[in-house]
Amino acid sequence: MLNCANPNYRGSPGFTRPERSGISVVALWVTPTFLELKCTLLWLGGNKLTDPLPDWISPAVFQEYLRTFRRPDTIHAICEDYRAAASIDLAHDKADLEKKIQCPLLVLWSEKGPFHRMYNVLQTWQERAVLAKGKVMPTGHFLPEQMPQELTREITTFLRA
């Protein structure tokens, strides 16, 4: 198991340290088994671990997840993303925390994810932008895969306004 969590993580603006929030550190399998990947996708998707794979994960999609999550460069890229969130992203956030984002923002987040339960996500972005609107989506981590039509409708409506 490869642990790509950074022990110096201080949290991103609007959110607390993972150990205070109940979010466990991120660990990814270098060579996940079928069962490990299935459980990860089910959990992130907001399903019970005993559920069958949902419709949005076709056998071909699952095989592609399995193939790519076994690639060292994929694991490296994911770890770099988490490292950045726990290091340089914090410096960037601090440097312009007092500046408001000037363009309109559409904020959509997962109802079944931890942030919906722990934070007022929309308020966090409204405090950082001139105009931020959005809503929770009744889905797990994979918004585009789980709700493609609904997500497209939300984005299209936002862009046409």
Largest sheet: 2 strands, antiparallel
| Spans of at least 5 consecutive residues with low confidence | 1-29
N/C terminus separation: 46 Å
Oligomer: single chain
The helix content is 40-55%
Shape: globular
- Overall pLDDT score: 80
Element pattern in H and E: EHEHHHHEHHEHH
Domains, number: 2
**Rg over alpha carbons:** 17 Å
Widest sheet: strand order? Answer: 1-2
- Total beta strands: 4
Helix- and strand-based class?
A: mainly alpha
Our count of helices gives: 9
Strand content: 5-15%
Please describe what this structure looks like:
The chain is mainly alpha-helical and 161 residues long. The chain folds into two domains: 2-94, no CATH class; 100-160, no CATH class. Helix content is 47%, strand content 10%. The protein is built from nine helices and four strands; from the N terminus they run E-H-E-H-H-H-H-E-H-H-E-H-H. The protein has a two-stranded antiparallel sheet with strand order 1-2. It has a two-stranded parallel ribbon with strand order 3-4. The longest helix is centred in the middle third of the chain and has 14 residues, at 72-85. The protein is globular, with a radius of gyration of 17 Å. It starts with a strand and ends with a helix. Mean pLDDT is 80; it is low at 1-29.
